[in-house]
Design brief:
The protein is of the alpha+beta class. Helix content is 34%, strand content 30%. Helix 1 packs antiparallel against helix 2. The longest helix is centred in the first third of the chain and has 17 residues.
Length: 169
């Protein structure tokens, strides 16, 4: 799928990104999964803390914008990459970008970044039922490492840990 010329992907923080990425998570997961204030506040708090401690030598965030408005994003938190792995987080697209290949572009950038940094492992937490996202993760080398019942999302779900061991091959 050819890149959409109306979409700009920027690596690094843009003003309004915390609010917009939080909004996209809050509205999507409330509408689709019944998540509430707990989840939206968790996204806002953790994304804010990540960006305050952001170090471009180990971390990355990519923001997809249309006409200057953030319509999606994805981050790699490399804080514990050497021992626990790089943490893929806050992967979200608005309805305007879903199904247009932007998710694939963002996840490829994240994996390539981890290869460049020689991170031995990338991991992400998600939950059962996000089938399109799971397919995308598996298409770039992630596999299900474990699953468990949990309520860290603010509502009970079947949490899933996916891992990938990227290589420069």
């Amino acid at each position: 799928m050819a890149p959409d010329p109306t979409v700009t992907v920027t690596r690094g923080y843009l003003p309004g990104a915390i609010g917009r990425i939080t909004e996209l998570h809050g509205t999507y997961y409330a509408e689709q999964w019944g998540f509430d204030l707990f989840f939206e506040a968790k996204v806002a708090t953790e994304l804010s803390a990540f960006l305050r401690a952001y170090d471009a030598k180990r971390d990355a965030i990519w923001l997809a914008t249309v006409a200057g408005r953030v319509e999606g994003g994805l981050a790699i938190d490399g804080t514990h990459a050497a021992d626990k792995g790089a943490h893929l987080r806050w992967f979200i697209l608005s309805d305007a970008l879903r199904g247009k290949g932007m998710g694939r572009q963002l996840i490829h950038r994240a994996v390539e970044f981890c290869v460049e940094k020689a991170y031995p492992k990338i991991f992400l937490w998600t939950f059962e039922g996000l089938d399109a996202a799971r397919h995308l993760y598996e298409s770039v080398g992630f596999s299900l490492a474990c699953q468990q019942k949990g309520s860290g999302w603010g509502t009970p779900v079947n949490e899933q840990l996916f891992e990938c061991r990227p290589s420069a091959g």
